[in-house]
Amino acid sequence: MIFLVILQGAAVVLFCGWYVQLSPCGSAPPNGKVHVLLLSSWRSGSSFVGQVFSQHPSVFYLMEPGWHVWTKLQKPGARVLRMAVRDLFRSVFQCDFSVMDAYLPENHQVSSLFMWSHSRALCSPPACPLTPRGQFSNQTQCFKTCSTTGLSEVEEACSTYSHVVLKEVRFFELESLFPLLQDPTLDIRIIHLVRDPRAVVRSKEESAKAFMSDNAIVLEQRSIPAPEVQYQVMKEICQSHVRINERAVLKPPPFLKGRYKMVRYEDVARNPLEEITAMYEFVGLEATSQLEEWIYRVTHGKGKGSKKEAFEITSRNAADVSQAWRTVLPHSKVKRIQEVCQEAMALLGYRTVHSEKEQKKLDIDLLMPQEPYQFSWLPDETERPSNG
Ligand SMILES: *[C@@H]1O[C@H](CO)[C@@H](O)[C@H](O)[C@H]1NC(C)=O
């Protein structure tokens, strides 16, 4: 009898394993939509990469929906809030904005959504008549013209796109996302965008005040001496990069296969077209020649050092900007960052510097070749063709 029970148990396990293989986690949801999570951190180039998706005619894009959760429920700290953020993402991926009710003021409209005018889809029909689909949107004009759109129009717009892309900086692990990866109505792709922590610190210093409440949540509201905060926040962020990358790369669960791609911002800055094309391909989008021209234009712009708002996309020469920390940051600070981010820097391929001289000598390349560090699975060949 016991033997039979064991045998039956084994049969179930075997059958399930076989079943999982037959219907790979890659089986597409009925409506064929792809749901992209652009998972990054503050000042890591995610606004720019987000725009690269937002401007694509097949993409419904939204910037940091998790901001609403963090802003409304500041007290608990990142650990407690992550499930609420996760559940918000599930709804928004499914174009259900009723979940926003919990976080928005009464009588809300599209302008209540964080950074809504950065979403080209919210400046285009059916959300707003301003920007014909297939054209590039202008945030300033959109901000003025499209602000009274209601959330039902937002939902309607969302449902007309093949790709929903959400950028977020408020995930510090992958485990909370596992239910979304296993949800048969979702086809999730995760692009994990990382950046040299020394460049991140320099960039955050430009607008330190903007990060105060986020920092407190990252640090679980612990009281930490002010000069120490930036290092402790950076430590959390660096550890999260290691945690996320290792979870996806070393012994990933089967439902993560084909769904994770790590991208270093520095590689995007050096080879924008190549890296962006690879990201499009990973999620099943095609680059148009119009998009390629736009990418060239925004990555080769002028105006280095101009004062920019914390969340604005910059069009300065992207490759230049990624080196700026080397001349601006004092070496003592660089040493501290390298200490708290040692493991992440080794994993992601950022070389440490050991003297001020080495730091300031810009012809020493601190970016290690990407091969062993960048890791992704491409989706199965059998998956549906892209909707360019
Ligand atoms: C966007 O529109 C504003 C106002 O009409 C204009 O001043 C600005 O140059 C435009 N920006 C771009 C990038 O075209």
TrEMBL record:
Belongs to the sulfotransferase 1 family. Gal/GlcNAc/GalNAc subfamily. Its EC number is 2.8.2.-. It comes from the Eukaryota. It holds the Pfam family Sulfotransfer_1. It is found in: Golgi apparatus membrane. It comes from Liparis tanakae. InterPro entries: Carbohydrate_sulfotransferase, Gal/GlcNAc/GalNAc_ST, P-loop_NTPase, Sulfotransferase_dom. It is a single-pass type II membrane protein. This is Sulfotransferase. Keywords: Carbohydrate metabolism, Glycoprotein, Golgi apparatus, Membrane, Signal, Signal-anchor, Transferase, Transmembrane, Transmembrane helix. The lineage of its organism: Eukaryota, Metazoa, Chordata, Craniata, Vertebrata. GO terms for molecular function: N-acetylglucosamine 6-O-sulfotransferase activity. The keyword Chaperone does not apply.
